[in-house]
Automatic annotation (TrEMBL), chains A, B:
InterPro entries: Acyl-CoA_Synth/Transferase, ATP-grasp, ATP_grasp_subdomain_1, CoA-bd, Ligase_CoA_dom, NAD(P)-bd_dom_sf, Succ_CoA_lig_flav_dom, Succinyl-CoA_synth-like. Keywords: ATP-binding, Ligase, Nucleotide-binding. It comes from the Bacteria. This is CoA-binding domain protein. It comes from Maridesulfovibrio salexigens (strain ATCC 14822 / DSM 2638 / NCIMB 8403 / VKM B-1763). GO terms for molecular function: acetate-CoA ligase (ADP-forming) activity; ATP binding; metal ion binding. In the N-terminal section; belongs to the acetate CoA ligase alpha subunit family.
Amino acid sequence: MDSLFTPSSIAVVGASSVSGKIGNTILSNLQSAGYSGQLYPVNPRGGDINGISAYKKISDIGTPVDLAVVAVPRDLVLGIFKELLELGVSSVVVITAGFKEVDHEGWLLEVQLAKLAEEHGVNLLGPNCLGVINSRGGVNASFATGNPLPGSMGFFSQSGALCVAVLDWALGEKVGFSKFISLGNKAVINEASMIEYLGNDPETKVILGYVENIEDGREFMAQAAKVSMKKPILMMKAGTTPAGARAASSHTGAMAGSDQACDAAFRQSGVIRVEKLDELFNLAKAFSVQELPLGPNLGIVTNAGGPGILAADACGESVMRMPTFSPGTIGELQRMLPGYASLYNPVDLLGDADAESYGRAVRIVGHDPAVNSLLVIIAPTVNLDFTEVAKAVVQGMGEVSKPVFCCLMGRKNSAEAREIFAEAGVPVYDFPKQAVRAMDCMHKYAVWKGRPPRTYFTPEHDVDAARAVVDNALRSGRSELVEFQARDIVTAYGLPTPESDLARSGDEAVAIAEQLGYPVVLKIASPEISHKSDVDGVRVGLNCAEEVRAAFWDITARTQRLRPDVFIAGCLVQQMASPQSREVIVGFRRDKQFGPLLMFGLGGVYVEILKDISFRLAPLSVEEAGEMVREIRSYMLLKGVKGGEPVDFEAITDVLIRMSCLADDFPEIYEAEFNPVLVNSDEALVADARMTVVDISADAGNRPDERE
Amino acid sequence: MDSLFTPSSIAVVGASSVSGKIGNTILSNLQSAGYSGQLYPVNPRGGDINGISAYKKISDIGTPVDLAVVAVPRDLVLGIFKELLELGVSSVVVITAGFKEVDHEGWLLEVQLAKLAEEHGVNLLGPNCLGVINSRGGVNASFATGNPLPGSMGFFSQSGALCVAVLDWALGEKVGFSKFISLGNKAVINEASMIEYLGNDPETKVILGYVENIEDGREFMAQAAKVSMKKPILMMKAGTTPAGARAASSHTGAMAGSDQACDAAFRQSGVIRVEKLDELFNLAKAFSVQELPLGPNLGIVTNAGGPGILAADACGESVMRMPTFSPGTIGELQRMLPGYASLYNPVDLLGDADAESYGRAVRIVGHDPAVNSLLVIIAPTVNLDFTEVAKAVVQGMGEVSKPVFCCLMGRKNSAEAREIFAEAGVPVYDFPKQAVRAMDCMHKYAVWKGRPPRTYFTPEHDVDAARAVVDNALRSGRSELVEFQARDIVTAYGLPTPESDLARSGDEAVAIAEQLGYPVVLKIASPEISHKSDVDGVRVGLNCAEEVRAAFWDITARTQRLRPDVFIAGCLVQQMASPQSREVIVGFRRDKQFGPLLMFGLGGVYVEILKDISFRLAPLSVEEAGEMVREIRSYMLLKGVKGGEPVDFEAITDVLIRMSCLADDFPEIYEAEFNPVLVNSDEALVADARMTVVDISADAGNRPDERE
């Protein structure tokens, strides 16, 4: 990637001497940014462009170039690209728009470009992008207006408009960038490659990204998981809601993966998901200058009560905590403050506080062992000198070496103070909640980085037995595996099921029931009925032979009447769950971008009405399986309320891990659901299961995920 | 209040010639704001202050004044106040701090001030405040720095620091105020009086407020409900979380009411609650310039896909909708746009859009009958002229007369465009989500204003019978009314209960059970046991005489062993609920500020674990009772899932309204809970009830709400 970010020579193909044209802006940007390498403007008319004599043809350059920036009409791009390959080129930025985002022809052209680039090992950025900027070395190979300041944020964006808005914001806020990349259509270079590159870039301290879809979910996760251990990755993913996703696919032609899958991918690879642009900037500011706090405990120093309360409110809504100070701290504060000041957290220095009292309070609170980080709120008062306060706070902070954040509630007369804070690495916010949100986010990232290593294990299972069931279904052209077929797979994966057997007659049902012991459950068994409740095909709590026989005839007769066309194998006779059992659901659905997305929830209304579900992508670590279970709102019901016994959590996580293993083993299984899984304090029994299989050897157009 | 906001004479008591002193700043502010009425500086040393000769004593003024601003040491304030009363004064602003917010002595002084002010009919603002500003007429009677621009926002704040921050922000954003009020300790003038005043102030179009507590909940609601029908009220209430509330009470000595009560009060009186300062400003901007939309349907026009998706995402997270355009609209768009532009909502004009295409798109989309309001997103592109776009949008918008909002994604070269939009009343935002949030909020406010009138009715009930039970409990010194006592009140309020009777022996229990019909429930009956489950005092599903007799002895014996000290009246024998019944909880708790706060939730885990509860303040209208029921997440369970019958919703709202009536009739009942109420498709039976009563004639210090 060095040829893209630190090229020693750059060809600008489509360079123009007409001011306002993109081909002129690119050349001018490189010149005004002070690019000192070799520049080759290319224009069929030749002549002098911005003081450099232009080449009429690419071949005229005569020597390979590191980077070429292409801004020519769409229909010329492929030809130009081939000429560049002939000349020799390492990286190409295609600015030109009109590819897969507009029509099928454009899509075909883009595919050809990508193929050529990959064959020749060329880095291709775009097409349909704004370009790339390395703020050091004068590489502003873009048609953005304005040169970003050098800084420590690496930024990439799928949307060119966002690039422009971000550059503009950054210039106004005096925030600098290390690298700035407009991804465009992501024909070759995408978010995964940029995360990898910026992860290794010593000039980048924090990575920011805006995407509308993820190109290669697995590669993205792999890179992000590696890089997030080194530096924070803050990303916005637009198209989160159905309305947004519709706009996304009409815009870039991107197939939006399901948002739950993306959310799980971000979480599992340590990417911090950000919802709003202003929040992205607020968080980036903190991460780029301040150290991570060692814990959630925040000490607040303020000269005004109101903002202190707002900060406390923000703590209450986050994982940040406001610890009680030690008696020593309170004693020291008492000695320095007037009698009616608040000595507790938040410390209120009151309206007549001066720089000295700020400095002392920062020192005292900062030394309290319960405090991990500090928030200093400065509200303007009649005689307060922001500059002096900033100096005092920075000095005090130097002695305590804990992260300090500042909320400066006024823009007037604060320029110098802001510079002092900036130099000392103190992020400054306008409002208390912004500051607390940033601290909360940094703390969570610290927890992520410090988490114990994830443990994976592959449970013993009989893959051949499962394979036989799947192949059999595919051979017979069935896509649904219903209970009595799916059960063989459940068993092959070492999961217990309630004892049960298939009865083909009422007498057989009674015989099986007598063997299992009453009460029993009867369920319709037909390969063509996957939702048994549609035919009212389940009877629970059957207590004697009479009831079983009557239920058998009732279920089968009703099904025959309702679905005269289907084959009825009989009824499944099953052990009844103990009354202490609770029902949970474990399932997965294969996401196009990220693979199997596992789901967990309490059964019944908790999933259906309250949507109380947790998600993770396979393969699932033991720790993640545990998180899934603890994450649902109704978790307390599994722990047991009012003296009820907790369920066997290990048994539940075992089910989750075995399902994850199944999902990884069989790409043919598109969807699976164990529902219900009956858990009590001793075990978790898979009482019902169904799966959807697809022939992955067949035309991909038939896969269910293409039909959405 | 005219003497406060448009005084014809102002005395500044504590005026000083020393620059930087508060008494100097106040006088200077009045002068620099161009106050043209009579000014009387008062200072014991006399002399010339800012060019006016000062009075040594208040009595020297010799003629009554409209307004006096007092900035003298605390211990002089009361004396000064009395002198002002003698001279004759209509309004007094006490700037001085050091009252109830610091110590008991200050609290006593403040009470005396308030008493005097009320006796003499004087408007008292403060103490411990920044002052008051009327941006028209030069009344800057404050020690704020800078004069706010005239405008249409009326702002009041309990926190002086917030006042300063808001003024500073407004000057930077060129936003103006009609009136600007620092409430301080709210000894007399509080949020309710300001809402009333600003509601009638023709110069105020939108009311903004920041409070940490509400002084008089009922008065606040009454004023807010009246005013919110005329103009929007946007308020922040800090101290929302336990952490925040702790900070609040150590700061102002304000007793924080429960946040749920406050939330209900805001909602029921049409106050829009805002969580963050930046949001307050963003919403105020919209309300102060733009008309309310006639519906939730939003048409989006953009020149960049990314921001369009972000706007669509924001719609998905709100009640705003993006309608499908009519075929006519799509046809017109098709004729004007390139083939690869998106003609659907959001309309993407693409990066080469110019002012003309913006104007035409606004006209076309604006004329679509499905569209209620428009969001125009403008991202900077190479050749786009913001000024021209603004002109074209404003012109187009003039022809459609629907509310238009703008997202201008860049600060550079946008000053003129911003002015054009400001003049045309188009609120401009930096980011799409801010704009959609503002539109969402305006739409909700429009719905609130247009809602059908609330209907209240007082159900028939026997207040004397209930009074007898309450008085009896109070006479005997009991504070808890347990089931068999509370049931008489339930019956007096016309609510059905399951048939039941008190049994004093096992034989009596059997006799009652035989009469009621099996199955029955047995519950321990003791005036001293309000939580029957603590002694395991309930048995359900008793099917025969044997079971009833055994249960009676078991329950009573167990209770005697566990609580040998309590009186056991026997057991209550009760009809068993039908299996189709669902359990709900209806209750109330008396909030110190707002009165009875009614609560509704599904029984069991929904309330205990999932905290799925809705709240409203009494008196409850029929419509609000319905809202309470529909608002809970588990509402679907009451409607019936999978073919289950819906419950009798009218019966539930009837219980809510009767409880509201009970709460209003008996201030002695501090807390009440009907739990469970058994509802099925025919009725709602109050199966258990308990209440807490307090002697309100006794010392208020004994009331439970004082003990918090």
